[in-house]
Design goal:
Its main location: membrane. With 717 residues, this protein is mainly α. The protein has 26 helices and 11 strands. Helix 7 packs across helix 13, helix 19 runs antiparallel to helix 20 and helix 21 runs parallel beside helix 24. The C terminus is likely disordered.
Length: 717
């Protein structure tokens, strides 16, 4: 093992003992590092590790890829089946109205929402690692899919729902000519057919992205999406969802605006067409809101006492459907209804390959959002119940929950709630029953009732506005990220809000390293401990020695700020001081030439003193001969950071001020050594070594001894 001598001050060998016995500096020995492998050897080692195949490894891979094979044999049938069956039944009942409602948000017919919930529940039960979440329709993802669908419908030349008198509704199945737009439409495919084709293609592409991310083990990307970012994004998207549903609450047939600032465009269209409100839809919406909001609040308040939530949404759907059917709301009052919902399953079909380039960017943002939501919920429940989830396996599970159902005309899914994996299968059975038998009974269900269900389920996200003052008090940076992400997602563009949130988070992290200032440290009276002078009372400084700390890494982006802050705290900018001295010498020489009878010449002793002592600004009125930089808070240095420290040392050295470092991390020491901060042991610069110390006390004693050896006895404590 190599001794770290080059980093520590040697004992004084001038033969003269100081008046006060000084403690020897701390010396530690570094552990010798193993010789690094070359790139070829490292690559071969990784290939052997990942490409070798044994029976045990193959079995482990299969079990990891299909987690159901691990937990199903240990399933306690007698103890758990009753609870799982009841939970699955309740969740399945709740999923029926939600699936129909959220298909409206995704610009799809109701049957496709039921397909999506059914297939995703089965696939996640087989591939998912979380035991307490279900995968199904999620509002934010439906909004993103719906925006893409509406955009592609417009590009393909399909007529959208426009004014009241247009006569075009989402239930039209007339074959529209598709010779315009992007030219990717199959002839004979009506608006509804092309809408689900676009939705399935987006879903397939998002699933491929998620599987590829799982394959390349990039599940770690979820850590870059902070809670404040996801919360702000969800709240902003919720505002957009709320706005998009107002037209159904009022019974207006308005096209969904495209591009940026859709929130403002939608509200403008609503206000312009407010006179065309359908009174029947408005009254139905108000009645459903008055029923659902209090009942959902009761569910939330007594959820600890209830074994399962009461399905008030299903009750409202049943009653509203019966009222609409027997009251003939669609024919008598022009109310928009769900229409024909077929039973059974359609034959699987491939995505529209020519459409993938158009939706690739949108699918990527959908993939990231869906994965982030699923992983955050999975980890929350796993931590609560004491087990672990695999982020990469979750990526596989969600990816296949999108890829496989996309062949059966489904759209993007994510986590929707908590249940066990077996109860997810029970929920799928409930949905299967609806798909095969009950679905046509929802023909007369008003769309405004579906919009009410969507709006009521936004309560959780919209409540975040009440938490903004608390978030601001706790952490202003996180609150700012939340506000920026929310405002961008709602007011500008939903997908852009996610990108802006990520960039805002990154810039906030970088900004914290830009705002750090050098603080001066003082020594505690009772022990050798140093803290910020402005934060604690009773600290004292050493005459002639200033100790400073910089609480951030030093790298290319903040190295100039570090130097400026240090010079400000020391009270002396060495570059400006050297310039001032040059001007002073020049002025002195000119005066000597002009005035023959006056000779201005400083004594040699005064010149030596001026070189050894730097007087700070008049406000501080003290002199510093040595500067100790505490590096304990510096996590890393890059090349620019090492060069900055070298420049600080050299600039102050030219003025006779000694600069030493203390309490450097091992990685910082290695960076200094590689960057040539300290001279080799054999080099000698004026009989002194520019060293790094393990403790601040050692560094202070060294510079004090150094000053005492030079005859500056007044600097010793």
């Amino acid at each position: 093992m190599a001794r770290d001598n080059a980093w520590c001050a040697p004992a004084e060998d001038d033969g003269a003992e100081s008046d006060q016995q000084q403690q020897q500096p701390l010396i530690l020995e570094r552990v010798e590092k193993e010789a690094g492998k070359d790139c070829r050897s490292a690559a071969l080692h990784r290939l052997r590790k990942h490409c070798s195949c044994t029976s045990e490894k193959a079995k482990s891979k299969v079990l990891d890829f299909f987690p159901i094979v691990r937990w199903l044999p240990s399933y306690q049938l007698r103890d758990w089946i009753l609870g799982d069956a009841m939970s699955g039944l309740i969740v399945g009942i709740l999923l029926v109205p939600q699936s129909i409602a959220y298909s409206l948000l995704a610009s799809q017919d109701p049957i496709y929402g039921l397909y999506t919930s059914f297939f995703s529940a089965i696939i996640y039960a087989v591939l998912g690692t979380s035991r307490h979440i279900s995968v199904g329709i999620f509002g934010v993802l439906c909004l993103l899919v719906g925006q893409v669908v509406d955009r592609e419908l417009a590009l393909a030349g399909y007529l959208t729902e426009s004014g009241i008198g247009s006569g075009i509704s989402s239930n039209d199945s007339a074959v529209l000519l598709a010779g315009q737009g992007n030219g990717s439409v199959v002839l004979g495919c009506d608006r509804s057919c092309y809408a689900i084709t676009v939705g399935a293609t987006v879903t397939f592409t998002a699933g491929v992205y998620q599987v590829l991310m799982g394959l390349f083990q990039v599940g770690f990307v979820s850590v870059y999406l902070s809670d404040s970012l996801l919360s702000g994004f969800a709240t902003g998207a919720s505002l957009t969802i709320l706005t998009s549903q107002v037209k159904y609450l009022l019974g207006l047939k308005l096209p969904r605006p495209q591009g940026w600032f859709t929130l403002c465009k939608t509200w403008y269209s609503l206000l312009v067409n407010l006179g065309s409100t359908n009174i029947c839809d408005l009254v139905t919406s108000l009645v459903c809101l008055l029923v659902l909001i209090p009942t959902k609040e009761l569910n939330d308040r007594f959820k600890a006492k209830l074994k399962a939530p009461i399905p008030f949404e299903l009750f409202v759907v049943i009653i509203a459907t019966l009222a609409s059917h027997f009251g003939h709301f669609d024919t008598a009052y022009g109310s928009s209804v769900a229409g024909v919902i077929p039973t059974g399953f359609l034959a699987p079909q491939l995505p529209l390959w020519s459409l993938i380039p158009n939706v690739a960017v949108d699918a990527f943002s959908i993939a990231i959002v869906g994965f982030a939501i699923t992983v955050s919920l999975s980890e929350m429940f796993a931590k609560k119940h004491g087990y672990a989830v695999d982020a990469n396996q979750e990526m596989y599970a969600i990816g296949f929950c999108n890829i496989l159902p996309s062949f059966f005309r489904c759209f993007t899914t994510s986590s929707t709630g908590c249940q066990t994996q077996v109860s997810g299968l029970v929920s799928a059975l409930v949905l299967l029953l609806v798909l095969l038998v009950i679905a046509p009974l929802f023909y007369s269900l008003q769309k405004c009732v579906l919009a009410v269900i969507i709006v009521v389920n936004l309560r959780g996200a919209l409540r975040k506005f009440a938490d903004v003052p608390r978030m601001w008090r706790v952490n202003r940076v996180d609150a700012s990220i939340w506000l920026v992400t929310m405002a961008t997602s709602s007011l500008v563009n939903t997908e852009l809000g996610l990108l802006v949130g990520v960039l805002a988070s990154a810039f906030c992290v970088l900004g914290r390293t830009q705002r750090v200032r050098v603080c001066e440290l003082g020594r505690a009276a009772a022990r050798e401990h140093y803290e910020d002078l402005t934060s604690y009372r009773g600290l004292r400084t050493h005459p002639g020695v200033a100790v400073f700390r910089y609480e951030a890494p030093i790298y290319y982006a903040n190295q100039s700020l570090f130097k400026k802050s240090l010079y400000d705290r020391v009270g002396l900018d060495p570059v400006k001081e050297k310039t001032r001295r040059l001007k002073f010498k020049k002025k002195t020489s000119e005066q000597e030439e002009e005035v023959a009878d006056v000779t201005y010449r400083k004594p040699e002793k005064d010149e030596a003193t001026a070189a050894a002592t730097v007087t700070l600004d008049e406000k501080s009125r003290r002199s510093v001969r040595s500067v100790v930089i505490d590096c304990s808070a510096i996590l890393f240095l890059d090349t620019a950071g090492v060069n900055a420290l070298k420049e600080v040392r050299k600039d102050y050295e030219d003025l006779g001020v000694t600069v030493v470092l203390a309490q450097c991390h091992t990685s910082v020491r290695d960076a200094l050594e590689r960057g040539g901060y300290c001279p080799d042991a054999g080099e000698d610069h004026g009989g002194e070594r520019r060293l790094v110390f393990f403790t601040i006390a050692d560094a202070v004693r060294y510079v004090q001894n150094l000053s005492a050896a030079n005859g500056d006895c007044d600097t010793k404590c």
